[in-house]
Amino acid sequence: MEVVGSVSLVVLGAILGFVATKLSSWQESRSRRNLLIGMFKYELRRVKNEFPTYDESLVFHRDTLRFASIEKLIEGNCLSYKREGKLIQELLFFRIAVARYNDFVSVSNYTQNCGSMSNEAHREVFNIIADYHILVRAVLSG
Questions:
Q1: CA-to-CA distance for 19 and 29, rounded, in angstroms?
Q2: Measured CA distances, 86 to 38, 73, 91 (Å)
Q3: Could you tell me if 97 and 64 are in contact, meaning their C-beta atoms sit under 8 angstroms apart?
Q4: What is the largest CA-CA distance in the chain?
Q5: Pick from 10, 49, 58, 107: CA 20 to 30 A from residue 116's CA?
Q6: Digitized pLDDT (tens) for each residue of the chain, 142 residues in all
Q7: Whole-angstrom Cα distance, residue 132 to residue 124?
Q8: Overall pTM surpassing 0.90 (yes/no)
Q9: Closest Cα to residue 36, out of 102, 91, 96, 81?
């Protein structure tokens, strides 16, 4: 009888240890998720809503957009592909829009620094960047 009681205590201890480990893992994942979502919201607030109007007499330089939290949200264990697949999909679309915006911004900044552009080319590049800025804002607003 004593052996059965000892085995029962061992099994109960193993079950409690397993539950405690799972709870700790869940709490860590939840904390990581909350921190990264908070960081992503902070990064989003830094994206300006307005885009300057075109002035052919001015060289326009735009900063590229960087979001350190997106990769951790998508690739980490913060989001569930099963439960939050739509959110992950939206984050991927957002990442694509930002990458395209950054490509055009980098090229236009480099081109303006290294040479001259015709007024027509200058306006076209400005309009492309403005369109991508609108796309990034549209993805942000859902």
A1: 15
A2: 19, 13, 9
A3: no
A4: 94
A5: 49
A6: 565 667 677 777 778 777 777 777 777 878 888 898 899 889 888 887 777 777 777 777 788 888 988 888 888 778 888 888 898 898 898 888 889 889 988 888 888 788 777 888 888 888 888 888 888 777 767 6
A7: 12
A8: no
A9: 91
- Let me know how long the chain is: 142
The CA distance from 111 to 123, in Å, is 13
Cα 41 to Cα 20: distance, rounded to the nearest angstrom? 31
Work out the burial of residue 97: count CB atoms within 10 Å of its CB; fewer than 13 is exposed, 13-18 middle, 19 or more buried: buried
Q: Can you say whether the dihedral through the CA atoms of 58, 126, 133, 35 is positive or negative?
A: negative
- In single-letter form, the type of residue at position 1 comes to M
